[in-house]
Design goal:
With about 375 residues, this protein is of the alpha/beta class. It has two domains: about 230 residues, Rossmann fold (3-Layer(aba) Sandwich); about 130 residues, Helicase, Ruva Protein, domain 3 (Orthogonal Bundle), CATH 1.10.8.80. A hairpin with a 2-residue loop joins strand 6 and strand 7. The radius of gyration is 23 Å and the shape is globular.
Length: about 375
């Protein structure tokens, strides 16, 4: 697909857009494979975040191509990309920008002028975000939630679309500053980047130690991404699947009647309403990537871990016993009744209705 995107042609129906997105998704994976070996699940979750309009936190040890993955994704999506290396001496003005005194050459009048910082881009890579103090980490919060920056008594909108893709290293704790819960909640997903398999690592070694140099094609136009974000919100979701997403989240809230017993024993805090919103939006985006216009319970389940692992807080007893939030999520999901059977019946009835109408109209 060329840079022209769908905006240069006749408007698509939603179903055509779903088919178009699935085809583009397959092309995008093939294009990224020129530079990124493996990590298909991570790439899928990054794209779900982007098409949902969310932000993503990547956690993994050094050398797993987290930074390369994000910069390559921005290149393929035809988006403006800025990388910010978070260090202990980084200041908020280094991110959002600063006011300087500017002199008009004609009138010699001096006035303040705002110089935009690196946050004014479509894709922001906040590299090793936990290496800077909370004062600087908080410089991202307004832009992540409200898509704007306040400076000098004025508001400056950030470009659309806007994504913060942050990385952090789980190995070293000395000299790091854990992200506050309020900022973690603004990340739609927290994704773990794991080691490659042996076969993938062999391919990585061959490619990176040879003269091979790949060039990535641009597959999505700027306006097309905004269009797809709009289509994602229109994807159908049944009341039963929506209730299922709500039940999964509500079972983690330890001070409610619906709390799961394992969550009550091991959590000091459960997930809030943003978790439900992220599960449903992520489910809609995943359905589109798989060529469907209906959200299934499996779309919700596939996103449960990246959506909720950073929104739950284990208590001291759980931490001392090595119980992680992922383990709590697994126990909760296992016991929440799934509407899979109902949804299949719903799809069958839809097919029967279409068949009846076709026969009635003589088609």
């Amino acid at each position: 697909m060329s840079n022209a995107g769908v905006t240069d042609s006749a408007p698509m129906s939603d179903m055509d857009a779903v088919k178009h997105t699935q085809e583009s998704y397959n092309k995008l994976k093939a294009e990224l494979a020129k530079k990124i070996v493996g990590q298909e699940a991570v790439i899928e979750q990054l794209l779900i975040c982007i098409f949902s309009g969310g932000h993503c936190l990547l956690e993994g040890v050094p050398g797993l191509a987290k930074t390369l993955m994000i910069s390559s994704l921005a290149e393929v999506l035809s988006l403006k990309f800025n990388r910010i290396q978070f260090t202990p001496d980084l200041m908020p003005s280094d991110i959002i920008g600063t006011e300087v005194i500017s002199e008009d050459k004609a009138t010699h009048e001096r006035k303040f002028k705002f110089l935009q910082g690196p946050i004014f881009a479509n894709v922001i890579l906040a590299d090793e975000i936990n290496r800077t103090p909370p004062k600087t980490q908080a410089a991202l919060m307004e832009a992540m939630e409200e898509r704007q920056i306040s400076a000098g008594g004025k508001r400056f909108p950030v470009p659309k679309p806007f994504f913060v893709l942050a990385t952090q290293n789980p190995i070293e704790q000395e000299g790091t500053y854990p992200l506050p819960a309020g900022q973690l909640d603004r990340f739609m997903f927290k994704v773990f980047v794991d080691y490659p398999s042996r076969k993938e690592e062999e391919e990585i070694v061959w490619v990176t130690t040879s003269p091979y140099n790949s060039q990535l094609a641009k597959l999505f136009a700027h306006d097309e991404i905004l269009l797809l974000q709009n289509i994602v919100r229109r994807v159908r979701i049944s009341e039963e699947v929506m209730k299922y997403a709500m039940d999964v989240v509500r079972h983690t809230r330890i001070r409610t009647d619906q709390a799961h017993s394992f969550a009550q024993e091991n959590l000091s805090w459960g997930a809030g309403p943003r978790a439900v919103q992220a599960l449903i939006l992520g489910g809609k985006a995943r359905a589109i990537l798989y060529g469907r216009y209906d959200v299934l319970a499996e779309d919700i389940r596939s996103n449960v871990y990246p959506v909720m692992r950073h929104r739950l807080i284990c208590n001291f007893q759980a931490e001392s016993e090595g119980i992680s939030t992922d383990l709590v999520i697994g126990e909760v999901v296992k016991d929440v009744p799934s509407p899979d059977g109902w949804h299949q019946q719903f799809l069958n009835k839809q097919k029967e209705r279409k068949g009846f109408l076709a026969r009635l109209l003589g088609k």
